[in-house]
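Q: How would the structure tokens look for this protein?
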Amino acid sequence: MASGANSLMWFRKGLRLHDNPALEYAAKGSKFLYPVFVIDPHYMEPDPTAFSPGSSKAGLNRIQFLLESLVDLDLSLKKVGSRLLVLNGDPGEVLIRCLKEWSIGKLCFEYDTEPYYQALDEKVKGYVSGTGVEIFSPVSHTLYNPADIIRKNGGSPPLSYQSFLKLAGQPSWATTPLSTTISSLPPIGNTGSFAVSEVPTVRELGYEDLAEDERTPFKGGESEALKRLRESIANKEWVANFEKPKGDPSAFLKPATTVLSPYLKFGCLSSRYFYQCIQDILKCSKKHTSPPVSLLGQLLWRDFFYTAAFGTPNFDQMKGNIICKQIPWKNDDELLAAWRDSRTGFPWIDAIMVQLRKWGWIHHLARHSVACFLTRGDLFVHWERGRHVFERLLIDSDWAINNGNWLWLSCSSFFYQYNRIYSPISFGKKYDPAGNYIRHFLPVLKDMPKEYIYEPWTAPISVQRKAKCIIGVDYPKPVVSHDSASKECKMRLGEAYALNKKLNGLVSDEDLNELRKKTDNESTTLDSVSRKKKQKFID
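A: Here is the predicted structure in token form.
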């Protein structure tokens, strides 16, 4: 260590005191400890051109959740003799200035596998090398170190969940008690010429406050995360019998899952601590579910996607991504906007998209429904376009998991049974036959009789008038016919799969354009055949 006396703890995710090895190490043997969070304009600056309030990277609900998490972290630090130093600017440049001005001998931060942070960390490490400053960057955001799993697999990530489980085994730390409390931290030294601020409000960042009904019901922070965790695991039987596909995507008064994902995303909750809490319950349970469907299985899915993302160049795009099928998706702005803005004319889909915009969270099966509908189920719009909308609006938006799920749900990677489609009509009906979820999030349909609530365009005009909702006036007509659209999507995917197989995945832009022309022609033929059949039926 250069001076040995001063440490800097650089918070990015990992916004917690419990199970924070970087913070513990920063405190050890230090005279002064500087806990820093940098407000990154790349992430926080308002973007007036975006389709919803927020920055170019994040919707306002997620920015608000992050600010609440920082306020909570600051309060926790104050209880142990410290505080959070909030600085503004490009994080790499700000950090380098801090290291110089505060004579830092030890720089600690949680390891991050996201490409943005990988590049940022390389920049900071490049400056530090040769200065004598010690860097400590432990893996504590995930259960495993993705690099270890990739090494065990011979240099590439496992692409099936079962092979991931076999390689992963028991996490190395699983049998050792994790440090969950910090009793005191070294004081903060002189901050010199730095403009240190308190955690800003959304208004101070240049935003308007969100209206009450546009604001997520989930509050950020470690205190809230631990409270939610305690409530979730209090019902030991629920934990032991948790079975993922059996949740109810239409439950909104009391969501059918833990809603711990945003807290794991920002590291307000340690995934390792969550893992140990679940293990303690399972040890005492006579019978319990197992991965992939169990609660523990959900945490392991998270690590599966982190590992796949870390070991796959261009994981967040189709082009240049070796694990992604090359498919001639449409880039239809109108269809994308109808989906994004809850105007598809399919109430189940539109209600989910309203909940996403307002809450910043939707049940995983609701995510499956709308992602399938946009891509391989009905609209055949590029998964990258849908991913971008989720990335912005979800408070739990996580680079690896969001991209992994879109690759999966569009049948571009991991899952290839493209004939299995979530119906935008019958899937929601199975859980909520009365349509209460739709009535709540789409009040324009609140008086529609339950027989028509999932397909209001089939309601006789007298019923529409009585429900004060005329289809095509008060609520849109469907943008596609689900039956013919899903047939067309299957045809297009079948052709694309055949091309990928024939060319061994080495599909050029030219190949895709040729296929697009061919399938467009076939689609026109399909259309005219189905129109003739309809006409015959009417005659």
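The longest helix spans residues 509-538.

The longest strand covers residues 32-39.

Upvote if useful.
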